[in-house]
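[Discussion] Sanity-checking designs against the backbone

I'm trying to build intuition for which residues belong where. Below is a structure token string of 106 positions. I'd appreciate it if someone posts a full sequence so I can compare it with mine line by line.
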């Protein structure tokens, strides 16, 4: 069994397309879903710290226990928590994937 992980928006409309894409992308049987509202903003700004710690703790389970072969951070337009336009969403994604180890506020 191969796993990967998705740090994804909690909005149910995007979950299945993300799962299907990541299964193909990482040749994975299963996708561990770590959901938060606006996860790309949370990780980009590293706020609130308790949400960042929670995401990292759940990712650690995916990597350490399931041996996930890839991790995706997902952002989307029309997000209720992060209503930024597309260019800012993309900037948040770029900033989000620079962690951990970049001086995360805890």
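Best answer:
Here's mine. Compare freely.
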């Amino acid at each position: 069994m191969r796993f990967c992980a998705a740090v994804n928006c909690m909005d149910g409309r995007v979950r299945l397309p993300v799962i299907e894409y990541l299964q193909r992308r990482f040749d994975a049987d299963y996708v561990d879903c770590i959901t938060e509202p606006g996860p790309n903003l949370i990780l980009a700004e590293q706020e609130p710290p308790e949400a960042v710690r929670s995401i990292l703790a759940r990712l650690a389970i995916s990597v350490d226990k399931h041996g996930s072969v890839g991790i995706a951070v997902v952002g989307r337009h029309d997000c209720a928590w992060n209503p930024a336009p597309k260019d800012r969403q993309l900037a948040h994604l770029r900033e989000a994937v620079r962690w951990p180890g970049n001086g995360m506020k805890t």
